[in-house]
């Protein structure tokens, strides 16, 4: 499978760092563009599977937004050609204008501050849509399996029920649910590292048989 490239159009350094840490840990090629007038050049010159863009940075009427909107609305695969998918990041300052449009046009978005699982789930879904992934990324599979196990055991709490209801409607969520913290990112990277090391240790024994 070809290397997965992700373009991040974001001028907030804290968000750049958070997104890069999460996506780099998957071994993907990540490029950050902090200036709007560089975005179209990167879009036309790079082979990207996914574009993550801060709508507060580019606005709702700029050429960059119109280009990305058209890309997001187009089929991911058409006549053998694969198009990049787009994930819009919506800060609070842009929510009132952006969310009604995104909901009406069914454009994929995440709210800022990020929900860790929501972000990974949407990234995973969009990469699968673009045929860049054949299966959900490991963390999304893990969290989904955990949620399913809790449901089967009859331990649905009020908080998890509220989170599910919110995700199924407007994708709003409480700030204290799945907010992507430095501790979560560190734990995620630790788990990924342990998994990679475990695979390397198993390989020599498997080769003997």
Write up what this structure looks like:
It is a single chain. The chain is α/β, with parallel strands linked by helices and 209 residues long. Helices cover 56% and strands 13% of the residues. The strands form two sheets. It has a five-stranded parallel β-sheet with strand order 2-1-3-6-7, with helices on both faces. It has a two-stranded antiparallel ribbon with strand order 4-5. It is globular.
Question: Quick one: overall form?
Answer: globular
Distance between the termini: 27 Å
Give me the secondary-structure category. alpha/beta
The percent range for strand residues is 5-15%
Strand tally: 7
What is the strand arrangement across the widest sheet? 2-1-3-6-7
Taking the sheet with the most strands, its summary is:
5 strands, parallel
Number of helices: 9
Percent helix range = 55-70%
Mean pLDDT: 77
Elements, N to C (H/E): EHEHEHHEEEHEHHHH
* C-alpha Rg (nearest Å): 18 Å
Low-confidence stretches: 145-151, 153-179
Notable characteristics:
209 residues; globular; alpha/beta; 56% helix; 13% strand; single chain; 9 helices; two-stranded antiparallel ribbon; five-stranded parallel β-sheet; 7 strands
